[in-house]
């Protein structure tokens, strides 16, 4: 399981190509909303869940995938970017996992992601 308290793992920038790393895990009717990466690690928001990927080892051949369904979110908080501070944050509270925090730098579809989380968490 990924250590979500380690901030350096999840300082993320938008990277549409990163979704390819989790393509084999997607269900037939599951679509990618957006994807973000740091140096090797990343997160992909889909129509059904959030998939966090932690690449391990020197060669990067060992990978840890954490699948977090939207339906298990009990609360969340969004901090959007401002004029001078371009970073945004997403804190999610899962019923069985606890708090998960993602920090984004640069362009982020945080409002679209927030809307999608609400659609699933509030139904």
From TrEMBL:
Query: Domain of life here?
Result: Bacteria
Give the stretches traversing the membrane: none
Query: In the record, what lineage is assigned to the organism producing the protein?
Result: Bacteria, Pseudomonadati, Pseudomonadota, Gammaproteobacteria, Chromatiales
Instruction: Identify the residues that the record assigns to the Bacterial Pleckstrin homology domain, covering every copy.
Output: 15-120
Q: Can you name this protein?
A: Bacterial Pleckstrin homology domain-containing protein
